[in-house]
Design a protein that fits this description.
about 180 residues; 7 helices; about 75% helix; about 0% strand
Length: about 180
């Protein structure tokens, strides 16, 4: 179930990009309709991120390091798009009466992007913290990888490090309290 939710999450992220480009290319009336679709998709994504975060934190269902790495790799073009649009929007800060609105839009988009980074890395973070707490294996690569999961760009590298370090799919079959299913 968790994998299907993550796939839906990636799909909705790209739908958001598609709607944004469509708003630029069409006439005013259709652009207004697409703007509402953009807002609805953004709220759906926000709700899905919150739900995924809660579900990933307490009970991850067959979610391997390799799968999370692939989700992060699939989202790289989205983050590049996000960055370019953020640069273009920040040019609008030069217009005095739009400065406050654009600044708010930038703050919200950065928060939205960071929340998506945390949500996509949460299964890996939970597993790494469990391994460190249980003292099964504490090494510098795992600790650095754990820290990398909290920074933009480095989260993908941290996910790849964990995947290569493991060399196999490891699933999370118990909840955060350590109880078996």
């Amino acid at each position: 179930m968790l994998k299907k939710l993550y796939i839906t999450f990636v799909f909705l992220m790209y739908v958001l990009v598609g709607i944004f480009f469509s708003m630029i290319l069409v006439d005013d009336h259709l652009a207004n309709i697409l703007a509402y679709a953009f807002i609805v998709d953004a709220f759906l994504l926000l709700a899905l991120m919150i739900f995924l975060g809660i579900l990933s934190f307490f009970k991850a269902d067959q979610c391997s390091y390799r799968f999370i790495r692939n989700v992060k790799l699939l989202l790289i073009p989205f983050y590049i798009f996000f960055f370019v649009i953020g640069i273009l929007i920040s040019v609008g800060l030069l217009v005095p009466f739009l400065a406050l609105v654009i600044l708010l839009a930038i703050i919200l988009s950065v928060a939205f992007g960071y929340l998506s980074i945390i949500v996509t890395g949460l299964p890996n973070i939970v597993k790494l913290v469990k391994r460190i707490i249980n003292n099964n294996e504490i090494n510098i690569a795992l600790i650095i990888s754990l820290i990398m999961h909290f920074f933009f760009g480095l989260d993908v590298i941290g996910s790849v490090i964990v995947c290569f370090k493991e060399g196999k799919n490891i699933t999370i079959n118990d909840d955060i309290l350590g109880r078996d299913n």
